[in-house]
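Dear support,

Our group has been running a series of protein-ligand predictions, and this particular one with NDP is the one our PI (initials K.S.) wants archived with full inputs and outputs. We had some confusion internally about which version of the output was final, so please treat the block below as the authoritative record. The input we submitted was:
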Amino acid sequence: MTAKLIDGAALARSIRQQCAARAKTLTEAGRQPGLAVVLVGDSPASAVYVRHKINDCKEAGIRSVLDHLPADTTEQALLARVRELNEDPSIDGILVQLPLPKQISEQRVIATIAAHKDVDGFHVANAGALMTGATGFRPCTPYGVMKLLESAGVPLAGAEAVVVGRSNIVGKPQAMLLLQSDATVTICHSRTRNLAEHTRRADVLVAAVGRAKMITADMVKPGATIIDVGMNRDENGKLCGDVDFESVAAVAGAITPVPGGVGPMTRAMLLVNTLEAAERASAGGT
Ligand code: NDP
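Confirmed final output from the archive:
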């Protein structure tokens, strides 16, 4: 391996410590930050994600409230619960764990969360803020990727950045954040012709597809920075990214591992957004 390893676990640890200090300041001033996490149903994967989020809050001194609702919860009941949380002054951030059972529209749920408590950054008001450069919440995963690039000292102004994937929660906001940092951004997706031609131009390549090891060494420019958002299982059931780590690390200049790269940063940025919401609420704004 010639590439420098970008250690997301270490950076996330230091961000969590900074969050704990910010939470302490708010708590000592008489207002402990609070995050509500709503989980609907019994998906084991969602339960694990939620447990991590609750533990992270605890460790950082953020109060968390877990609402675990049954799988047959109606949309109306969930929306009513979200509206209650919107009105609750002790709650700064609301996170409804996705995916939701099929009887519930995720879009309507996200739209019902008050934008100033939408710490996932999925509400259209926050997506619009990201698009226009206004103050809002950035989705945790792409926000975490920007912190990783910053920590690794990767120059972005004028750089060729290629994002593979165009989802609303990762690819699109990622492209927008890279654009804000003055990169020249290309977004690739399942209909892109000659994917490798695009990825080979990238100084910074962000893979957010969900296909194990699809980015291979021949698709990467020597010296490029590679950020692997993907979380997949390989043929042996082992967690792996969208990047074929072994071969790409021999060509790239810097690379994130899976696990230990983007994943811990996504979790850490949820705390950052929750504190941001709490600090804005303490300052009297929304
Ligand atoms: P989605 O399935 O919503 O989006 C995947 C994107 O990849 C789509 O835009 C799709 O294109 C594109 N795509 C699919 N196949 C190809 C292909 N052959 N070539 C190029 N593009 C392709 O996934 P998410 O954005 O939600 O997540 C992406 C990955 O990141 C997943 O592995 C997920 O588990 C992981 N993830 C990791 C997180 C972390 O914290 N580490 C957080 C969130 C996600 P099209 O739009 O045309 O269908």
